[in-house]
Design goal:
Length: 325
């Protein structure tokens, strides 16, 4: 089979991925072998490839937005069934975080495309307990971004504590943001987008955003999707009294010094976002099944995964990049 591996972590322009021909992976007990039909290209893949995240598995196959067809079944799944492989791959199930329903905080958690090989390949393996059933009515390439961009955007929306009918600010408008915005709007929120991209501003308005101004009205909640710490004080200052800012990234550049009175006083809150639980993943996928979300994708053949990653790094992808066989 074909598989892309992170051979030398470094800037995307230095081509850190290498395409190899290798034997098919062998599933262990309780695992599924899946033929990959689509795999999203996530910014976290970029952080893994560029070395922003420490190496957890040398020569790892990236990719954690995997739509695949079950080849070898286990755990209640049947051959031929379509399943999703997401970022969260394993937890201990015994620690105090797992036991209180916060498995995303499990100290022993493992992740697809970082701790174990992911979906930039023809075949992938996933523990059956962490495989996800997918909603009907979507093309494979549209399903792929739902499995991280959609799920983590949903988790970020929950972390932002958006009140009913409130004003939500979104900073950066890529794969995750354009899905979270649709969930918020469907639930009655007024969404205001801040992004430098003209194409992203046009997309935001077409999805129902109330504004795409660099100076939104006072916000009840906000989410930063861009990996730019410089946006934190900007977004905090845009919050109204009692507002909450969620930072939806696994990696963020340094945050400038904050002024307590301007940025945090009057019950403003700053929250990080760490992975998601399987329960949240299922909630979001159920929502996506009930509400026809518009998923903007740019498809790339699997053999051009390195080009897709570079396009993402250089801001040339509108919506989500997806690898297809």
């Amino acid at each position: 089979m074909r598989a892309w591996r992170v051979e030398h972590p470094g800037p995307a322009a230095s081509w850190p991925l290498r395409l190899r021909s290798e034997s098919a992976p062998q599933p262990a007990a309780g695992e599924l072998l899946v033929r990959v039909r689509a795999c999203g290209v996530c910014r976290t893949d970029l952080h893994v490839a560029e070395g922003d995240l420490p190496v957890h598995r040398a020569d790892v196959v990236p990719g954690h937005e995997v739509v695949g067809e079950v080849v070898a079944a286990s755990g209640g799944f049947a051959p031929g069934e379509l399943v999703g492989i997401a970022w969260l791959r394993g937890t201990c199930g015994r620690c105090r975080f797992c036991l209180r329903g916060a498995e995303n905080l499990c100290p022993s958690s493992t992740y697809t495309g970082w701790d174990a090989d992911g979906g930039y390949a023809d075949l992938a393996v996933v523990p059956a307990d962490f495989a996800l059933r997918l909603p009907s009515g979507y093309a494979d390439s549209a399903l792929a971004p739902l499995l991280c961009a959609g799920i983590i955007g949903y988790h970020a929306l929950l972390r932002s504590a958006l009140p009913a009918g409130g004003r939500l600010g979104i900073y950066g408008f890529g794969a995750s943001a354009h899905l979270a915005a649709q969930v918020a709007i469907a639930r009655g929120a007024e969404v205001h987008v801040v992004t430098r991209s003209a194409a992203a501003r046009e997309l935001a308005l077409s999805l129902g955003a109330a504004s795409v101004s660099a100076e939104p009205p006072p916000l009840d909640s906000a989410i930063i999707f861009a990996p730019a710490g410089s946006l934190v004080p900007v977004a905090l200052e845009a919050l109204d009294r009692g507002g909450t800012l969620a930072v939806a990234g696994i990696h963020l550049s340094d945050i400038p010094p904050l002024d307590y009175q301007r940025h945090l006083f009057q019950d403003r809150q700053l929250r990080s976002v760490t992975a998601n639980t399987r329960g949240q993943a299922r909630e979001f996928l159920e929502f996506a099944g009930e509400h026809r979300l518009r998923v903007e994708t740019t498809d790339y053949p699997l053999e051009t995964a390195d080009r897709a990653l570079l396009d993402l790094a250089e801001g040339r992808v509108n919506g989500a990049a997806v690898l297809v066989p």
